[in-house]
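[agent] plan:
  1. take the single chain provided in the ticket
  2. run structure prediction with default settings
  3. attach structure tokens to the ticket
  4. add a short note for the reviewer (M.T.)
[agent] executing step 1
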Amino acid sequence: MSRKNQEKLIRIALVIATFVMIILRFLLNEKGRVNPDSIRFMRSAHVFPVIDNTTTPLGYPLSLKVFAILGFGEFWASKIVGILAFLFIIWFAWKKRFYFRESVLVAGLFSFVSIFAYTMSEPLILPFIILFLYIGRKIIIDELSGTKAVFYLSLILIILYNIRYPSLFIIGGTLLWGIGNFKKHYGKTFIFSALIGLVFVILFKFLYIDRFNENYVNEFLEIGLHPTSKLLTELFQGLATSFNPFIHIANPTGGVINFGIYGIGLLNIVLMIFLFLKSRLSETQRFFLFIGIVGIICSFFIQYFYSTTPLDYRLLIAFTFPIWLLYFRKFYQFFGRFAYGITILSLMSGLVFTWLSKGNYLQNRREIITFLKFENLENGPLRFYVENPEHLDEVQIAELISTVNPNISWTYNPKDTLKKNVLTAHKVLSKIRIDTNKFQ
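[agent] step 2 finished; step 3 output follows
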């Protein structure tokens, strides 16, 4: 068998293995790969066209609403969106011959498998990131120009912002790229497109956010939230796990194992820098790298006045994606088919982690369905009482309930627990048993 055919078979096998791993990742999880933000997304989709949330744009909730209308429910809709996002990236890269090998390798990394399996907006943004990179490349190599180029580039920037607000950093990166290359044939295209994107952001703020939540800015903007020493430490940890091809989550309790996790990530970053410096980057490749770095830098500085969780692989995924594509392109040029070994080992380590930390989501879902039906709470609005949002064992119960009845919100008032539609961890666990594990 020729080398070309061997690689073709390897790529097909990797796509199939990745597809299976995405499904296993949320089925072999005690709560189906959701978190408190997932509750907000699913509830927003469930109550639409009522707008109850401006913390995130409507792009992702509306995608869930489409499949929910078709009868899948918001939770299963989120998994369909994740799987379709993965399949679209592979199909588009193959159809357009645009970083196809690299897309297969990157999508198969366990961190990306975890993203595609998550009920979060990050899976939906990745297909549009690859569209953005493709359009940017077409403009740079002068296959797309003029009014048509400005239209497509500004449109994709607006779509990105309607999925995740951090896409503002991509708009900013596009503007800076255009300014830095102003004298080149495509410079003005990037500038005009970015300016159109910024105008949309301003209109979005006044016409959407202020209309439904006039206190948004006052609630979320606060100068001097964290000291630089803390943010720099979290940045290192976030980058080291984001660029660790095998393990993307550090042990929250600390320990020696974290030295290995951060160490592998750091060594991989060093290898990236070496490969980027060793070989000549094309203009398109410099664009990939520039957008990724600008996004990471902006994500760091925004923390000084906008409250976010510490940077990790999930928050940085839209910006690390183009860097990963470029990295695998250079890795393959230097080391050949050894590049496939990285993704194969990543899938294997992911399978081991998933198995060792396995829960039983389907069993837990059946328990929650039984409980809600017995309490006559399977439909209608629910509230869940938690004394402290950091009590993850209690929050986890609400997360699991949201996968069955997404119309659930939080309450912190103990008096509310007297109401029938207000649940507590004690009320639930006194009547059913949930399969848990120490790794989730």
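[agent] step 4 note for reviewer: The chain has two domains: 3-356, 361-429.
[agent] ticket updated
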